[in-house]
Here is the input.
Amino acid sequence: MLNIKNTEIIVGVLFFCMIFIFGSVDAGLNTSFNRQPVITLSGDVFYVGGSGPGNYTRIQDAVDNASDGDTVFVFGDSSPYHENVVVGKSIFLIGEDKNMVVIDADFKGAAVKITADDVFVSGFTMIHPHEPINEPWDSTLVNIISTENVTIRDNIMEQIQIYLGDWRSGICIRNSSYCFIQNNTISKENDTRPCAGVAVMIGSTFNNVSGNEIYHFSDGIRITIWSSNQICTDNVIYMNYLHHNGHGIKTVFGNNNTILNNIICFNEQGIRIEEGCNNVVFGNIVTDNGEGDDIDNGIGIIGGSDNYVSYNHISNNNPSGIEIVSINNNITYNHISKNNIGVSCEYGYHNFITKNNFILNKKNAYFIGSIIPRNIWRENYWNRPRLLPTYFW
Here is the structure.
């Protein structure tokens, strides 16, 4: 068993190395991860807290008096701010220092609810959203509803579990596109009740969740639907550090999403793609997952088809590095090492497992065999050159 502290240091170093290893790769991936929000400060500045003349005492009052393009700047002197801020204008909402400026929702609502396009929020600690008494996902710290081009960057978000009801989240994106969730620390009390760090749902498309640290959730990042006509597509999950969650990343009926260059470790399951098609899992470090009470695996593809898993480093997962219960997926150019089982295809078929390195797994491969194999295994390296995998009935 690896020493967790030492392993986390190694994972941290690998995280920065990945910028150089994979940063310039262009292999037909969803390229929206290269997009950056355009930030141009303009308009008037409205100050909250502090000792300046004319400063507001409440964030909401400053927001109400601002116009599109204005900035609301919040000082830490009067923190915490016991408010449920609603932003219905295209403004910049900026805290002096995320460690100093606290928005305490007092269990009455979201800390920040956004219903306008082109909103930028940065520099806050957000705590204590309300109990979800109205609908699933109703308890969230930042609630983004039916918007475009919203940026939530460089904040600290602490979700607390006080109710055994429906799902809730740190950040919830509903029916919104081109939003950027970047460089936030999102955490929750370490319990098992259903909760997601970032939830992307109800037909949300072309969103970018990148550079965040997310831990202690049922799902670190969850892409999900409420009905079959609300599929979330073309979202990018890029360079996040997801650890000690139930699932690091879980997608349910999500298509054409890209999971790129993340570090996903010490979760019960690293990545789970459920009933999704044409998703790309590329260049991730997926290690030491499946260590909880509900032992799972590194990457699971359950249902759906035509997903691509390539150039990932998949190691020390239990029981499997990759589990495939699906059809027509491509598993290629991965480094799969030191897992109990490298790749399990017990119920998957018509999958292409090619050109992977299988190194020091207890069992390199497991599948239900026949005279004509249901999956294609070709040009893999099995500690030594070998034409066929080691397989078991």
In short: The longest helix spans residues 4-22. The helical segments are 4-22, 59-65. Residues 1-28, 31-38 have pLDDT under 50 and may be disordered. The radius of gyration is 22 Å.
